[in-house]
Amino acid sequence: MPQTDHRSAFDTATAVARTEGGGLTAELDPGWDVGGGILNGGYLLAVAARAAVLESPHAHPVALSASYLHAAAAGPAALTVTPGPAGRTLAHSAVVLADAAGPAVTVQATTATLTADAATFSSPMPAATPVQDCVSIAENAHLAPSSVSVPGLTQRVDVRLDPLTAGWALGQPAEEPMMRAWLRFADGREPDPLALVTFADALPPTSWAMGVFGWAPTVQLQVLVRALPAPGWCLVEARANEIAGGWLDEDYRIWDSTGRLVAQSRQLARAPR
């Protein structure tokens, strides 16, 4: 089953409870925002994934496809899980996360039980700067302009930017919209499939790599969890294929501390403007 450590900020923030009437509720935590009180899409998807697993005979989310209908507000949320076909190896369901304004996120979820079996083939981890030589976003939050609110997400997820793809932070934008960073939870909670769902949307927009800054609201996000991650840091690489017409796409690949590919994601977002 997904790791649940009640000392962990992540498990507290993604907790799903069953009401007396049989419904599911969550308390969306304002501490997982990306700035301006806007909650991170990966965090919201992890809440929905936890609800899907709670109503499934299988232990892990393996494929999630989410549409974001409006920016969900922090506070009480209701979750509705509609079961679909289920079998010995997997189960399908539809999840709706709603706040006071109505449905905010809809998710098509597939759950299964992942194992530690060796991969027949796994895309190799790219060469990256060692984590101790990378740039901590949280430790450098004081460098942000006074007019910029520090996202709560950066205090919950420890992001260490690879200097080779972080020139944008030093006023030296790149020609390619690509970022690479090491991630783990700031409180030391080890990664699991639900954590990977959040990590799959935890970096700044890839347009920032080219010096194009601003909020890039997620419209659609697909996450595949491929394996149980080993303890320790995860390496995340995010890349855009095209930024045009007010739209931005992003592909993520995530490797665990052993170098195994453990998750992938693809999203469509509105480009910063």
Kindly list the characteristics that best describe this protein:
273 residues; mainly beta; Porin; 14-stranded antiparallel sheet; 4 helices; 14 strands; globular
Question: Mind explaining what this structure looks like?
Answer:
- The structure is a single chain.
- The protein is mostly beta strands and 273 residues long.
- It has a single domain, classed as Acyl-CoA thioesterase, double hotdog domain (Porin, Beta Barrel).
- Helix content is 11%, strand content 37%.
- It contains four helices and 14 strands.
- The chain has helices at 9-13, 41-54, 153-156, 193-199, and strands at residues 16-18, 24-28, 60-68, 75-86, 90-99, 102-112, 135-136, 157-161, 178-185, 218-225, 234-239, 243-244, 247-255, 261-270.
- Strands 1, 2, 3, 4, 5, 6, 7, 8, 9, 10, 11, 12, 13 and 14 form a 14-stranded antiparallel sheet that branches.
- Helix 2 (41-54) packs antiparallel against helix 4.
- The termini are far apart.
- The mean pLDDT is 94.
